[in-house]
Amino acid sequence: MIHIKQMPDRPSREAIEAIAKFSPATLHEAQGRKGALSSRLKPIDYRMKLCGPAFTVKCAPRDNIMLQLAINYAQPGDIVVVSAGEYEEAGSFGDVLANACLAKGIGGLVTDTGVRDTLQLRDLGFPVFSLSICIKGTVKETLGTVNDPITIGDELVFPGDIIVGDADGLVVVRRNEALAVAELAQAREDAEAGYIAAYKTGRSVVEVSNLEPVLKAKGLVVDL
């Protein structure tokens, strides 16, 4: 028997707001270079961003019945995250379902299959990250799971994990690590601001990054 599950543990608003301040790249680096989803998953428009709790769903390839159920039960701000077997030759989501998502206040879609109606999706401004763009239709036959752990983009995603996406890609942050990761991300941004300020004063990249002893140990000789 298949059960539709609600998200077991939602991240706090404080945690989501703290994580939303940072780019996926910064969060990936801050948490020890973890959590980056495959670079094959890209936004359909480079201006699209998303951040929110993962409402996970497992679909059969070329089948979107469970995606529609996920949209039905997701709550405002949720990011619907779909594992569908990395099947590129299907357009499982388009402008009709995007309007359903917008009407519910859903925060975005991440899927490892294809989407279509991308011109309309861009006009709607609904954030969509997908493996492909494909016009081929889907069926509604096979039941799957909602709000169980899934694998997508080579990463394990639990319901309630925080998904963050922008033009560069996607990262997942564990719900119970979010506030600590946000602190590490802020420290990283502060350090990078310091590097930029140093460059503007005329200091070199080698000096700012303290590369001289590293290069010397590796036997680098500069002949200029």
UniProtKB/TrEMBL annotation:
SUPFAM superfamilies: RraA-like. Keywords: Methyltransferase, Transferase. One of its GO terms (molecular function) is methyltransferase activity. One of its GO terms (biological process) is methylation. The keyword Methyltransferase applies. InterPro entries: RraA/RraA-like, RraA/RraA-like_sf. Gene3D superfamilies: Ribonuclease E inhibitor RraA/RraA-like (3.50.30.40). PANTHER family: 4-HYDROXY-4-METHYL-2-OXOGLUTARATE ALDOLASE 3-RELATED, BLR3842 PROTEIN. NCBIfam families: PRK09262.1 (NF006731). This is S-adenosylmethionine: 2-demethylmenaquinone methyltransferase. It comes from Agrobacterium arsenijevicii.
